[in-house]
Write a structure and sequence with these properties.
Layout (H helix, E strand, L loop, with lengths): L8 E7 L6 H9 L4 E9 L5 H7 L7 E6 L5 H10 L5 E4 L5 E2 L4 H5 L6 E9 L16 E4 L1 H6 L18 E3 H6 L12 H11 L4 E12 L11 H16 L6 H41 L4 H17 L14 E2 L10
Parallel strand pairs: 1-2, 1-4, 2-3, 6-9
Antiparallel strand pairs: 4-8, 5-9, 6-8, 6-10, 7-9
Length: about 325
């Protein structure tokens, strides 16, 4: 299986109330020679996301905009975009992010992959200010299911940087052969769930150090406002993968169980806090008396939150200076002359 920088890629963008950012996202995708299609699904926006998206058309005939009258969630929007496209490769772009020029050539030059991702540069300032990613020495590596799952377990006191944030290009033929699409019951962790299931079906997931994806860090990100119910759905979806017959090895099952318990612990803490918000400590005691198995997770979570709050220093400025990026993956920069 040879690589090709001329391969056709469809970029799918699920957007909700993204009128302020969608034009930049679309323009960055349309500037890429490897992009044959850009499919935007307006997921029931209350603003003019659809109109702004259509106005970003460059006249090349590659842009398609679909609108849902009611919000159906990112999974449903992405599935609709996949079905509306025909290209052999599928790439994801969040509506408030964008691509750096020349993103796809280094990925599509690689061989023997079903999913391939590059590095992500996180922007902590106004993205209208010019910024260029560092050049890294060429390196590619295979990401196993165990490494992927381990890399998605967040740890207190460390800046979030889960491997699940990566935005791989996916081979449509592999997805179709295994009947893989986004789980429309999920509104949190839908990317993680899809990539986990792909790896469970034997996907070859390659990662390269080249940085072509710009992720804009926003305090009001929709992904940061998930519901308690979303956590429950995520760990139950993961449990379904773990318990599927003849799908995972014992080692893979063990690490998936570890992540499943990690998410379930977050759910138990959030559920207890919801009970407190609605009925005070009496409601918490009632809640935990009905779910005694949740007590260790809740106690550990509360203690951890208190210790973290006590040790946390107030931030008086952006964690990364304007014009610079924080990279998800470590790489060896090419020395600039």
């Amino acid at each position: 299986m040879t690589g090709s920088a001329e391969a056709d890629v469809c970029i799918i963008i699920a957007a909700k109330d993204s009128g302020d950012t969608i034009a930049k996202a679309i323009a960055s995708a349309l500037q890429e020679k490897a992009v044959a299609e850009v499919v935007v699904v307006d997921d029931g926006s209350s603003d003019d996301t659809s109109g702004v998206a259509r106005a970003a058309d460059d006249g090349s005939g590659r842009l398609k905009v679909i609108r849902f009258d009611q919000n159906r969630g990112p999974s449903a929007a992405r599935n609709a975009a996949i079905e509306a496209s025909t290209s052999p490769f599928i790439g994801i772009l969040d509506a408030d992010d964008f691509f750096f020029p020349g993103r796809f050539a280094p990925m599509l030059a690689q061989v023997n992959w079903d999913l391939i991702a590059d590095n992500i540069g996180f922007i902590h300032h106004d993205p209208s200010e010019p910024v260029q990613p560092e050049r890294f020495h060429a390196r590619s590596r295979r990401l196993t299911l165990v490494e992927f799952v381990e890399g998605n377990i967040s740890r207190r006191g460390m800046r979030r940087g889960e491997i699940g944030f990566l935005k791989p290009v996916m081979r449509r033929e592999f997805l179709d052969r295994h009947g893989l699409r986004y789980n429309e019951g999920l509104r949190l962790g839908e990317d993680y769930d899809l990539y986990l299931r792909a790896l469970a079906h034997g996907a070859r997931y390659k990662v390269i150090d080249h940085c072509g994806y710009a992720a804009v860090v926003r305090a009001d990100s929709l992904s940061g406002r998930h519901r308690t119910e979303d956590l429950r759905r995520l760990y139950e979806a993961e449990r379904a993968v773990r318990l599927a017959p003849r799908l995972l090895t014992p080692e893979q099952k063990a690490v998936v169980l570890k992540h499943e318990r990690h998410i379930k612990g977050k759910y138990e803490l959030r559920a207890a806090l919801d009970a407190k918000a609605s009925g005070g400590m009496k409601a918490v005691f009632q809640h935990l008396s009905a779910r005694p198995a949740a007590i260790p997770a809740v106690a550990t979570g509360v203690l951890g939150d208190k210790l973290e709050a006590r040790m946390k220093k107030p931030e008086t400025e952006s964690p990364v200076p304007a014009g610079q990026l924080r990279y998800l993956l470590p790489g060896v920069p090419v020395a600039q002359k």
